[in-house]
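In response to reviewer comment 3 from the previous cycle, which asked for concrete evidence that the modeling workflow produces usable outputs, we include below a single protein chain processed end to end. The sequence was submitted unchanged, and the resulting structure tokens are shown without manual editing.
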Amino acid sequence: MGKICRTALPGLLFVAIFLSPAVSLAQHKVAVTGIRYWSYPDYTRVVVDLSGSAEFSRHRLSGPDRIFFDIKSSRVGPGLRTSER
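The workflow returned the following structure tokens.
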């Protein structure tokens, strides 16, 4: 399996969290309150902070290799900032 491109990871997280199928605001139970990541020579670590427990699914895509997580019934928390690096 190939390595995940470190520069694509923040954008990939944006797509996985913010562009997942729409759910009405009344059904949102968990807020994404932060996203942090650290890149090392051999791997990248990503931490997604949530306001509570959540169900999620993980998927892998190729061409280029990448992963994404779908956090069920979630929404973007009011204090979460998004930006490109």
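The first strand starts at residue 30 and ends at 39. We consider this sufficient to address the reviewer's concern, and the full set will be provided in the supplementary archive.
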